[in-house]
Amino acid sequence: MKLYNSGFFVAFITLFIFSSCKKEPVASFDFDKNNVKAPVTVNFTNTSTNATEYLWNFGDGVTTTEANPSHEYVKGGDFDITLKAYGEDETNSTIKTITILPTMTGHWTINFALFGYHYTGRLNLIEFENQTLGGEFAFGDAPDYNPIQNSSKIDGSAVTIGVMLYGTALTFQGTVNSNYDSMSGDFYFNGNLSGTWSAVKN
User: Fold this and answer.
1) Is 154 among the domain residues?
2) Per residue of the chain (202 residues), what is the pLDDT tens digit?
3) Is residue 7 one of the residues assigned to a domain?
4) In a domain, 19, yes or no
5) Are 134 and 152 in contact (CB under 8 A)?
6) Is residue 18 part of a domain?
7) Beta-carbon contacts of residue 162 (< 8 Å; ≥ 6 apart)
8) Range of the domain at 65
9) Are residue 124 and residue 87 in the same domain, yes or no?
10) Same domain, 123 and 91
11) Are residues 89 and 112 in the same domain?
């Protein structure tokens, strides 16, 4: 007596074998830098399996479909990095958080008071590993920049920026906030306290 339909049995076995051979994608990745100061380029290594296409989101609004991308973080913060791995019919994703530390490096607009008058300037700052500051200062809308002095530094939240402008010593002393995007303090003209100042990162 015939106990089964041979066509159905063959189809069932074929479907079973095909399904058992399918492998779901698993998203996975590593990165080579963490807890470092911006701006910094981070390299990502894709360790996903059973995937043919990828979508990265670096947590700062930038995405890519490269398999093993590099990405530059220009400011500090905690960024959630998402990798989606696409297989034949399935998708898998994973998230890791990277911490980028803030830095003084960047372009700043500075406002300061001198003898009751208010002035503006532009600072291009570079923070070095030894916590000294390099860069340049321009007064108002002047096109010419002057290098800041070697005594310029950041120590914790305390900031000192010295500039020689037309033979005059300008010194900005104060503190920077925890995000390193605004600072303020006292302004000295040839060593004499002359007013206050503030600056914001552009």
Assistant:
1) yes
2) 444 455 544 444 444 444 446 789 999 999 999 999 888 999 999 999 999 999 999 999 999 999 999 999 988 899 999 999 999 989 999 999 999 999 999 999 999 988 788 999 999 999 998 999 999 999 888 888 999 999 999 999 999 999 998 889 999 999 999 989 999 999 999 999 999 999 999 9
3) no
4) no
5) yes
6) no
7) 148, 149, 151, 152, 169, 170, 171, 172
8) 24-101
9) no
10) no
11) no
Give the residue carrying structure tokens 């297989």.
87
